[in-house]
Amino acid sequence: MILDEELMNNLSYFLPKERIAQRPIEPRDSAKLLVVDRRKMSIKDYTVRDLPKFLEEGDLIILNNTKVIKARLYCTTDSFAKVEMLLIKKIDEKTGLFMVKPGKRLKVGKEIFVDNLKIGKVKDIDIHGRRVIEFYNEIDLLLEKFGNLPVPPYVRRFCKDFEEKYQTKFANVPGSVAAPTAGLHFTENLLKELKEKGVLIKFITLHVGPGTFKSISNRGEVLLEPEWVDISQEVCDSIKKAKMKNKVLVVGTTSMRTVESTNLMPYRGYIDTVILPGYNFKVADMFMTNFHFPKTSLLALTMAFGGIDLIKKAYAYAIENDYRFYSFGDAMLII
């Protein structure tokens, strides 16, 4: 898919480096929440703990319960050269597809070591230069023992409690290489308050892949790596019921892509859906999301829901008013 020049220009903006959040604010629900009203064409400041004000009894929230795994391995070859590997997806229990760097050090047949332990070898190289690695033990066991949580490339000040900070409070299905960051804002107290108000909360699963870090190419080419999703019959039925009389709040681009891709039918499998301005949303009445990188499919999805001009105005306002951007940053609620 190739985006036209006008849309590419709309997806571009300049962000001062100091606006990139290096760690989440505490408590998490004290983060800023920029409320963007499509009907009034207005923008107003709140905090995430104000979210219940915008929901009524019977409304439904959709969250992604994926859990970030230790998907990054720091290894050496049999010639003691250092390599870094990031899991894209498991092919089977002992074989996986990996992004590697530097790739020239991992040719087919090369054996891989961690802490002087031989763990596997390169079985193949695909057309994109990614390596198919065959391990001598189960991937899950190796990653749990030797792996590291992938740090977003723009987080420069690594905090000691990163592994706790980079998981949502409801993360319980391992499989992602990046967190569904809009969900990071939900504290146990906020979830409790929403439930006490009669707001329903349901979970889908989308395992975020490394493509979440990719920008759209300068030529406007969009290519998303297929990502694993799971949406149950119960969730589909809850959405259909809520849509009859109430509102559905979808939290995060991963949740949005899941509910909009599956036609409210239960589904377990891969999706590579790209949502662009002009798309007719079928599920979401409200959308909560973080502030995204320029020239990304995530920002394109946000503009598709909120409108290009209004979202550009909201981003300019957020930059002007010291909002924090990206994974550990503040949030936007589009109503």
TrEMBL record:
Q: Where is the signal peptide, in residue numbers? A: none
How would you classify this enzyme at the top EC level?
Answer: transferase
One record GO biological process: tRNA queuosine(34) biosynthetic process
**Gene3D superfamilies from the xrefs?**
QueA-like
Enzyme Commission code: 2.4.99.17
MF terms from GO for this chain are: S-adenosylmethionine:tRNA ribosyltransferase-isomerase activity
Describe its function. Transfers and isomerizes the ribose moiety from AdoMet to the 7-aminomethyl group of 7-deazaguanine (preQ1-tRNA) to give epoxyqueuosine (oQ-tRNA).
> Which PANTHER family is this protein grouped with?
S-ADENOSYLMETHIONINE:TRNA RIBOSYLTRANSFERASE-ISOMERASE
By its UniProt entry, which NCBIfam families does this protein fall under? PRK00147.1, queA
Q: What is this protein called?
A: S-adenosylmethionine:tRNA ribosyltransferase-isomerase
Give the organism the record lists.
Answer: Thermodesulfobium narugense
Q: Which gene encodes it?
A: queA
